[in-house]
Amino acid sequence: MNSKKHFETEAIxxxxxxxxxxxxxxxxxxxxxxxxDDVEEMRAAFAEEKDKNLxxxxxxxxxxxxxDKMVNMEGAESGYAFATGMAAIFSTFGALLSSGxxxxxxxxxFGSTHxxxxxxxxxxxxxxxxxxxxxxxxxxxxxxxxxxxxxxxxPTNPSVDILDLDLLGKIAKKHGIxxxxxxxxxxxxxxxxxxxxxxxxxxSATKLIDGQGRVLGGVAVGKKDLIREIYLFSRNTGPSMSxxxxxxxxxxxxxxxxxxxxxxxxxxxxxxxLENQTQVKVVKYPFLKSHPQYEVAxxxxxxxxxxxxxxxxxxxxxGRKFLNNLxxxxxxxxxxxxxxxxxHPASTTHSKLSEDDRLKVxxxxxxxxxxxxxxxxxxxxxDLNSALKN
Length: 390
Ligand SMILES: *Cc1c(COP(=O)(O)O)cnc(C)c1O
What we know:
4-stranded antiparallel β-sheet, Aspartate Aminotransferase, domain 2, single chain, 11 strands, alpha/beta, Aspartate Aminotransferase, domain 1, 14% strand, binds pyridoxal-5'-phosphate
């Protein structure tokens, strides 16, 4: 695209070519395959001499529209869409790693990503070394001659710590390794890791990108030659996104900026409210001055995101009681939904970790994670307040 417009405009106006019906909104192309005029056209499509859809595991107008928007928003060269965020992450590793390779990762990563590192990749002799989120000075010491990937998320889940992307980019470049960032919590509206040197950015589109808790999806965007490897791996192994989900997610992107603006505005108000409550021991939100990486957060993020973590006095019991006292906020495993969702990581998502391992990733027994939604701020605060007071 030569005349690049603003983020919001591209999210709306960057759409698949209209059909002969002149539809205003992109229709759903629910078709498994595409038809050819003659055998020569079909040969050319298979040989990739002709840019034509062939089979929806490879590409489809709806998935291409979604991917094009994501590529554009992240400032990437190319991309590919997946059925889920985990499919995007696993396919990226599957395509780019070989037996004997090594990964250096932040210890605070999404639970299933951690399971890939500990349970599945070792089956192919791929080992992972971890650094703690607050000790980035230890990263270089973990890099070995067979290290292929530096992997991280920022903000982290669930304790919303921030990693300095500029530093990660410089380390990856110095050592000639790939930097892969899971940008799910920030979205391309708040941070573009490619600007800091990321080679691949992966997303769970299930979260803020859908934003309304309807469909699962994932995407990987980045350098053309790497995405080409990921595409070939995926078109043969089959983790592709369905056209229906791509149709939903592409429309979701039209409202990403306006939704994320409001999510962040509400989240900052929730964080400020919680800081003033006597029942609350500590609040973590990237745009609060008290956040340990506040300076990095304001430097690299447009706004603070929609996740607030806080610790109630009274440990495990108090945390569980707080959740049970909520009247409106949902207890659910998702995040980035229009509905405010509250979780208690120590007794749910991270219950399988030992207490020692939980503390290494900042999960105390009383930690509560709030995915702040788009309800009226007063209703959110009223619910949190009465659950704290009970
Ligand atoms: C949810 C999530 C994933 C996995 O995405 P799915 O779409 O559920 O497969 C990966 N990374 C992060 C940070 C997530 O929050």
